[in-house]
Each structure stands twice: as C-alpha cells, then as structure tokens.
Design brief:
Radius of gyration: 14 Å
Order of helices and strands: EEEEEEEEEEE
Distance between the termini: 40 Å
Helix content: under 10%
Length: 119
C-alpha cells in the first residue's frame, strides 16, 4: 500500500538548481535507506546517490560536489538537492527507498520525475 510520490522536476537552465522530493504515502512508514537513480532515453539506469540509515552517503563521480542528499523523517520525505546543473544531467530521476512499517522492511520505487537542463 505504500507509494512514493516524486516532485520537483522540471526545466532549468544550465547552472541552475532543483530540489527533488520523494514522499512516502503513509505516516506509519519510516524510511531506512534511500537512493536516487536517473535514466536518459537509450541509456542504462544510473545510480546517482545513496543514503544509508547509518548516515553514510555516496555519490556518482559525475554529480559529486553538486548533488546533496537529505531527509525529513517527520515527513517521510527524502530530497536530492541539485546545483550547478548541466545538460548531461537531463534524465528521468527515480527514488528508491527501503523502510519499515514496524514489522517488516520493504523496498519501493517512485514513478520518476523529469529533469531537463537546457537553454
């Protein structure tokens, strides 16, 4: 019954910024880990960033120093802050989270949000 709702994508000029959000549908759900992927047409899905329950973060070399992960546990929401965006960042971005309802741990995918970096 848990769904992830992504938002924050859109059209931005090179050098601009966006913040993507990924919110879980139910208040009983608590996020343990999260990851962001992206996929451009004709390309393989790429792991962009990961955030573990222990607080460790990992970023792809292509986004390191420009993208930042964060989370708001009270809102069951995870974020990807993106700055200094480049045309090559254009893709559909997907969040993937694992969380618990207090009993079991499950993994969920968002439906994706389009990010387009262009003049």
């Amino acid at each position: 019954q848990v769904q992830l709702v992504e938002s924050g994508g859109g059209l931005v000029q090179p050098g601009g910024s966006l913040r993507l959000s990924c919110a879980a549908s139910g208040s009983a759900f608590r996020i343990n880990t999260m990851a962001w992927y992206r996929q451009a047409p004709g390309k393989q899905r790429e792991l962009v960033a990961t955030f573990t329950s222990g607080g460790s973060t990992n970023y792809a070399d292509s986004v390191k120093g420009r993208f930042t992960l964060s989370r708001d546990n009270a809102k069951n929401t995870v974020y990807l802050q993106m700055i200094s965006l480049k045309p090559e960042d254009t893709a559909v971005y997907y969040c993937k989270v694992s969380g618990t309802n207090g009993i079991t741990v499950n993994e969920y995918w968002g439906q994706g949000t389009q990010v387009t970096v262009s003049s």
